[in-house]
Design brief:
This protein is of the alpha/beta class and about 230 residues long. It has 9 helices and 7 strands. A hairpin with a 5-residue loop joins strand 1 and strand 2.
Amino acid sequence: MISFERGLELGADWIELDVHLSRDEALIVIHDETLDRTTSGHGLVREHTLAELRALDAGAGQRIPTLDEVLAWAHERETIVDIEIKNAPLYYPGIERKVLAAVTSAGMLEDVIVISFDHAAVRRVRELEPRIATGVLYGCRPTDAGIGLARAASADAVLPHWAYVTREDVAAAHAAGLSVAPWATSDPIILRQLIACGVDSIGTNHPDILRAILDSEASSTAGFKQ
């Protein structure tokens, strides 16, 4: 939760998180499917109950939050939440329905986007709730700018790795009615390249760097009209 607060302080417009299921099927907000890298615990998230996970130190005395807790926090701050369903290499049967239940319960249906590298999960989310925004993540350059991937999953957005973004592909995706939201870089040179390509948003670990670039470009063109 400290990192989410810090992200907003540094100028982020919204936050991104990853969800897994605990052994007792609670939605856990943690990046990895294992506990070793970011907590005092060991082993798979799915092998532990919520109570066991909450007893771990996730850094600076922080506890691993649940999706319900983060959504309540975001709702209070009127912050959009980008929810990545972390299927693969482990799969969580029924996680799509649980995510939708949490989002609906929090009154955040219009304030989230659900994304995943598991495009079948994205399609399942849209099938269960046609009103929710969804996006497909990928780390390659499809021959059709990701349009086919998005359409197959009934998604609203494509989220390519930054290395596979071109001006032509962004234009093609926009023409197909899709948003383009690459991830994840903090390199100022690359950030400027992505902005020049016309992307809609950028995932970054250092929103202050991106915010400074956006502010600088806005001030440099303040006297011009398009």
